[in-house]
Design goal:
CATH superfamily of the largest domain in chain A: Queuine tRNA-ribosyltransferase-like
Distance between the termini of chain A: 39 Å
Oligomer: homodimer
Helix content of chain A: 40-55%
Number of strands of chain A: 17
Largest sheet of chain A: 9 strands, parallel
Strand order of the largest sheet of chain A: 4-15-14-13-12-11-7-6-5
Largest interface: A-B, 41 and 40 residues
Number of helices of chain A: 14
Strand content of chain A: 15-25%
Number of domains of chain A: 2
Chain lengths: 368, 368
């Protein structure tokens, strides 16, 4: 089903809206917690409901290997499997596979399993089929994600291969039963070269998808390179379909991508930081392992009174972290996700109220 | 304050009642989850509230080393520290210390920290002082816990040292401010020799405590040795004070100890089993790692519909366990504690309704 975007308010290019799919709808801008292997680390779907998350991302690469798409399908698909009633999006597996230095040919990519070293082939068609069996609401096409920096030749080849695979992926998707219940998003590549980004965007738009994603950015390049490449794409994207920036989760990055017209985000950053004791707070990043917090009776973020973790002190949470109690990464993950989901909700409000510029300025003051 | 026990119902020697302390009251038989370092592994006080736990145990040995009794006291004591509003009991540190092969003299025990190898001395008086600063509702005396099997000489020496230390601990406790807010339990030792158990019980009863515990059992000896040693003690204990069997948590052990007149239990077993994928269910122990559960859409225990984990299938939970997602030990810990707390609640009901013998027989049918 073609995912649609309806605009509630705009402030410049920043959009507040609603994405509608076969499952229902969710509001944007939207941050999607990452449930790599079918669960966000340390959390359950009950926790995500409590946090008010609307969309969760799951990783095709991991799930196709363990427990396998067949078992997930047999157990009713990802929603029933993890008992999650909100929206769910699966990536194509491409990003993880390219970090494993696969052998690529025009047909697809051959890569090794991190679990047992066995070899697997993923093609644009099999990525569609696997994601159909996983049963998320939104599936992504298999793309070629070049590392940055790469030579113009490498980036150009990645753009061309991505376009050929996108065409095959779209054909495979439309030939199956999935369009009745799933949406399929295409992915724009092109590194940090705005011209190549425009080329890629036009190729993907010509094929036509249910939504559009920007991939291959936020992989180590500077924001001064990332944002022009992003802007070159967003101005071409249709106004009535959702736009997704893959793998971005820092506050400044989110607010700048929203300023460019992006609606959806995912990132492991908030939960990974939490597991290492770094907190997202209204005063910026806080490293809870610092000795100064050992005797602190204050909550993590006094400005966030309704945090699910507000009842415990910094001193207590730091203690649990220092003695490696697994309760610590859990509670800090809850906090960081609550903080980021609240941040995105306030960002949305600022757009609705025409105060986006002020919100953006304050984000830079704290986080730049 | 002298903890009191008021009897609601008895069935033979099995007691259903209420223990009252300065904090308030809790019902018995009672199972206390173990929050070693100030948290039950993977869980928070919010989870324990959800489970309906009434008493939580914390380990003096770990907390005196990290973060230290001073910091816990500065942060308001264990209740404020972990934000737990139910009852809390601290052990004396003795059990952990004796597993470290300390050097013991009449004054106390010298042991090494597992955290940094530093040396520490614990005496009956300092154990009282540290537990006063930790601020639990019930504190335990420092005892000498001999391993089993040990020679009669070793057990006899442990009984005598335990009595001398108990006398000093009681004097130290009564000399401080704690009696207004804390109760202090004495510990009976004596290995599996009923005669030595009687000797130890009379010594501890002569000193006089706010409640009585049986220590040094359930440390590897058979139930045929454990139960006669236990029975020799329980028949001497006063009817109007609580009785606590330290470190016992298996269903048959609990039901047999209740049959002998015990009220309170603690054990790491349910949460430790959970972390290794072993479930407590109405059909007995289930090893969730078995391949047969990979495709099971059933909940862990169909007979336990109100389990906090009933919404997820065995197949999903097994998958999380197999790929080492930390959500798995958390959810299985919640299940096993819910199962055991429900078990103890049903055990209580059977006493109130005069059906204890039938309950006891069914427990043996499933678990023996």
């Amino acid at each position: 089903m073609r995912a649609t975007f309806s605009l509630s308010a705009a402030d410049g290019s920043a959009r507040a809206g609603t994405v509608t799919t076969a499952r229902g709808s969710f509001t944007t801008p939207c941050f999607m917690p990452v449930g790599t292997r079918g669960a966000v680390k340390h959390l359950s779907s009950a926790d995500l409901e409590g946090l008010g998350a609307e969309v969760v991302l799951a990783n095709t690469y991991h799930l196709m290997l363990r427990p396998g798409a067949d078992i997930v399908a047999e157990l009713g698909g990802l929603h029933r499997f993890s008992d999650w009633h909100g929206h769910m999006l699966t990536d194509s597996g491409g990003y993880q596979i390219f970090s494993l230095e696969p052998s690529i040919d025009d047909d697809g990519a051959v890569f090794q399993s991190v679990y047992d070293g066995s070899k697997h082939r993923l093609t644009p068609e099999s990525a569609v089929d696997i994601q159909a069996r996983l049963g998320a609401d939104i599936q992504m096409t298999l793309d070629v994600c070049a590392p940055l920096p790469s030579s113009p030749k490498v980036i150009t080849d990645a753009v061309e291969q991505t376009a050929r695979w996108a065409e095959r992926a779209r054909a495979a998707f439309l030939a199956g039963d999935s369009p009745a219940v799933q949406s399929q998003f295409g992915i724009v590549q092109g590194g940090v070269d705005p011209t190549l980004r425009v080329t890629s965007a036009r190729q993907i738009l010509d094929i036509g998808f249910d939504g559009y994603a920007v991939g291959g950015l936020s992989v180590g390049e500077g924001r001064d390179e990332m944002l022009p490449a992003l802007a070159a794409v967003t101005e071409l994207l249709p106004a009535d379909q959702p736009r997704y920036f893959m793998g971005l989760g820092d506050p400044v990055g989110i607010v700048e991508a929203v300023a460019s017209g992006i609606d959806m985000f995912d990132c492991v950053l908030p939960t990974r930081l939490a597991r290492h004791g770094t907190l997202l707070t209204s005063s910026g990043r806080v490293n809870l392992t610092r000795a100064e917090f050992a005797r602190s009776d204050e909550p993590i973020d006094p400005a966030l009174a309704n945090s699910p973790v507000a009842r415990w002190s910094k001193g207590y949470l730091r203690h649990l972290l220092q003695v490696k109690e697994p309760t610590a990464p859990r509670l800090l993950s809850l906090h960081n996700l609550h903080w980021l989901l609240t941040f995105v909700a306030e960002l949305r409000t600022s757009i609705v109220e025409g105060e986006f510029d002020g919100f953006r300025r304050r984000v830079h003051e704290v986080w730049s």
